Amino acid sequence: GDRMLVRSGRSRFSLSTLPASDFPNLDDWQSEVAFELPQATLKRLIEATQFSMAHQDVRYYLNGMLFETSGDGLRTVATDGHRLAVCSMPVGQPLPSHSVIV
Predict the structure, then answer these.
(1) Each residue's pLDDT tens digit, 25-39
(2) Distance (Å, rounded) from C-alpha 33 to C-alpha 44?
(3) Range in 1-5, 63-67, 75-79 with the lowest mean pLDDT
(4) Residue 3 and which of 19, 55, 57, 76 are 20 to 30 A apart at CA?
(5) Is 60 helix (H, G, I), strand (E, B) or coil?
(6) Binning pLDDT at 50, 70 and 90, where does residue 1 land?
(7) Nearest 5°: CA angle at 43, between 38 and 46?
(8) Where are the beta strands (DSSP E) in the chain?
C-alpha cells in the first residue's frame, strides 16, 4: 500500500495511507480542539501505543489510533483486538474533552 513519511527534528514516522476518495468530503469540518505540544511529547505518545494498532483489519477503527484530550492531558490508545496500549501525557494547558481516531 501507499505510505506517508512524516519527519520532524530527529523523529520519523512511516504511516499507511488510503485514497482520499475512500473518505467523506469534509469541506465544512472545523477543528474542535487546538493546542500546541512539544514534538517529543507527540513522539512519545505515538511510539508508546502504535505497536498495538491493527494493520489492514476489516474493522477500520482498529487500524487507527485514538487521540483523546481531557483536563490538561492528551491520551493515545490503540488496539488490534488482542492487545491494548494506552499512554497519557500532560500538555500544560486546559483542554476540552474530545476524542478522534486518526
Answers:
(1) 766 666 678 888 999
(2) 20
(3) 1-5
(4) 76
(5) helix
(6) low
(7) 130
(8) 3-8, 11-16, 66-79, 84-101
> How far is residue 72 from each of residues 22, 33, 91, 92, measured CA to CA in Å?
34, 12, 6, 6
pTM recorded for the entire structure: 0.68
**Taking residues 78-98, what's their average pLDDT?**
93
The residue behind cell 488510503 is: 18
Per the structure block, which three cell numbers stand in for 55?
494493520
Give Cα separations from 48 to 7, 28, 38, 53, 73 (angstroms).
Answer: 18, 33, 16, 11, 15
Cα separation of 88 and 13, whole Å?
A: 20
* Domain range summary for the chain, segments of one domain joined by +: 39-102
